[in-house]
Amino acid sequence: MIGYFKTLGSDIFDLLYPVSCLVCGDRLFHDNSHICTYCLDYAFEPANEEYRESCDGLIIPDWITMQDSLWEFDKGGYLQDVLHHLKYSGVSELGRVLGRKLSLKLRKNPFFDLDEEVLLLPVPLHPSRQRKRGYNQSAMIAEGISKATGAEIVDQSAIKRIKNTRTQTGLSSASRKNNIAGAFQLAKPEVFQSGRVLIIDDVITTGATMLELAGVVRPLCDHIGLATVARA
Fold first, then answer.
1. Residue 105 parent element (H or E)
2. Which of the residues 94, 134, 178, 179 has the least number of beta carbons within 10 Å of its own beta carbon?
3. How many CB atoms lie within 10 A of CB 40?
């Protein structure tokens, strides 16, 4: 009986305050994904459809096994709005939804075998920024991938962000490298015994941040992949 009233209360709440898809505006009843299935499948332009070792236009060093992204970033478009909500509107569950979608793309990548031996490494936020935001959006994406694949997420204490960098947005490629240099510190090298790591972030532009982080674990890992929701 209690369960019945809880369900009834939930149904009434959904009728009074329906959640809408962030893209098309359709109602999402009993759904905390924030994006409808149709929009997840068709609203955004796919990136790297031919499954090259990296997306077009990115210069990736040969010691990186692969780089892949789910969609092309659309400045001023719906995907930018979605990622803005993820980072600044407190909808952390959206990251898990995007992570599960990204995992489907990664499973098809011929250059990187995504299995339980792979460690998922979300790009760390500086502690002050994470306290302000309440969560790390890259970690939420990694949780979605982990739930879909069984791959383990690296504990946030293993690598720390020790430099509170300014935003990379608007910086030149050289300025991005200088801005992020020395930002990460390896605290627990023993964590990376498997030798295979997939670094996770929401967006990749020049790759400066992800490559700086990859350089920290490079002496410990034979295979390093980079994966993001968007390629800008």
1. helix 93-107
2. 134
3. 18
In CATH, which of 2.30.30, 3.40.1130, 3.20.20, 3.40.50 is domain 44-231?
Answer: 3.40.50
Every domain of the chain and the residues it spans: 1-42, 44-231
pTM given for the model = 0.89
Q: How many CB atoms lie within 10 A of CB 33?
A: 20
Q: What is the Cα–Cα distance from 119 to 130, expressed in whole angstroms?
A: 22
pLDDT in tens, 85-102: 999 999 999 999 999 999
Nearest Cα to Cα of residue 215 among 186, 172, 194, 176: 186
Handedness of CA 227, 46, 18, 1 (dihedral sign): negative
CB 82 within 8 A of CB 141: no
In contact, 183 and 176? CB cutoff 8 Å = no
Where the chain has pLDDT below 50, the residues are 4-17
3-state secondary structure of 196: strand
Cα distances (angstroms) measured from residue 24 to each of 7, 42, 79, 84, 125:
27, 11, 12, 16, 31
- Determine the residue type at 49: E
Residues 213, 184 contacting (CB under 8 angstroms)? yes
195: left (phi over 0), alpha (psi -120 to 50) or beta: left
Contacts of 156 (CB under 8 A, 6+ apart): 122, 124, 136, 139
